[in-house]
Amino acid sequence: MQEVVMPKMGNTVEEAEIIKWFKQEGDPVEVGDPLFSIQTDKAEVECESTASGILRKILLPEGVEAPVLSVVALVGAADEPLPDISRYGAAPTAEPAEDVTSTPETSAPPAPVPNDVRPTAVHKGGAPVSPRARKLAAQSGVDATALSGSGVSGRVMEADVRAAADDANVKITPTARRMAENAGIALTGIDGTGIGGKITKSDISRALEQPTATPAAAATSHDPTAEMKPLTPMRRIIAERMTASKFSAPHYYVTVEVDMSGAKAFRAGNKAFKASFNDLVLYATARALREFPVVNARWRGDAIEEGGDVNLGMAVALPTGLIVPVIRKAQHLSLEGLCAAARELAEKAQTGKLLPEDYQGNTFTVSNLGAFGVDHFTAIINQPDSAIIAVGQMKDRVVVLDGGIHIRPIMKMTISSDHRVIDGAVAARFMGRLKEILEEAAF
User: Fold this and answer.
1) 27 included as an active-site residue
2) Is 406 tagged catalytic?
3) Which CATH number fits the domain 121-172, given the four candidates 4.10.320.10, 3.90.550.10, 1.10.630.10, 1.10.730.10?
4) CATH number listed for the domain at residues 2-116
5) How confident is the model over 90-137, as pLDDT tens digits?
6) Using CA atoms, how far apart are residues 198 and 293, in angstroms rounded to an integer?
7) Which fold would CATH assign to domain 250-439?
8) Considering 27, 143, 166, 423, which one is annotated as catalytic?
9) Dist CA 413 CA 198 (whole Å)
10) Catalytic residue among 123, 332, 406, 419
């Protein structure tokens, strides 16, 4: 019997939800056949079968969220007996049997294992343990080698040790625990909807959204004539990520006004290829980030990951929500090359053809609402970035230059920065340099 697992879509994706099964139990499948689609934190992704045979058992139904690398289905021969599916978390979990010395012929069936841990997660001789997890385990008196790790190949992470050191009666995923810690909310009173009653990040998000009004006031605040629309998977994930970002990253904002006269003249004179104003902003941003690697950085808890490639995210609005495709190594691209990359990613986003590698690994993000007539706005940082730029529309405004009154196309840009990583003076200098590149039309 072959196991089909929830694919890992990147280092930042810890959980995903199956949106649709394309095959049903009893259907034949081949390697490479579309088997199910999942909703990650960024997009809906179609997943292929990794095994050939008959789809014997679907272990994770539609609409259920589970950690990556969970076993979601079994594929085998038509007459092959199914194993004990309780080991995959398909049945309520139970405590391990007290007697572990019985022979194979008389031993009880294996104790069920939660679905968020693959059978291979615990290795003989102890699971691999990260340095930070080992340090925390020594401080808290936890045997880290006895834990089931949530990292790659069963690696025990700091969050796993922290969870084990806390109240054993509280079952919660590492992501949900981080959200609760960042928000400063107690876990008591939160009902877990995950497998075995485990608290998930969705449960934490719902707890954060609970009104603070009294029950009587809450009962009368709902308009019975209003339409209640259930959250789509993408909308729910956007809400969770933005909430986590605002609670974890101390935001502050710096705004500059840019005279786009030079950029307008450049576009009018450039006949070789088509470049939008947003393309010019993206290109200027990549250039400025090369000079300010501290802005192209990430907060890592006990360190700051600074510099490296400029993987530039560009926010694209879709009917179902917001997605951020990534222009990789933007610092090495010419303006023409960047325009082509941005146009290709935007088209793939609008047609739903983005692959996971198209929207992962961003180090900085640009969000432009100028096309919607917005003059100025602030954006929430797209983590794990430490900053994001919000771009407003270019608009003719009266300005005073050299003692004279002139009309110039002015565009406002605001950077939202994580103060843990970027100080105010650094953000100000960065925005000054970005303004300079655009006004000089240094493309």
Assistant:
1) no
2) no
3) 4.10.320.10
4) 2.40.50.100
5) 543 333 333 433 334 444 444 444 444 333 333 334 556 766 677 777
6) 40
7) Chloramphenicol Acetyltransferase (3.30.559)
8) 423
9) 43
10) 419
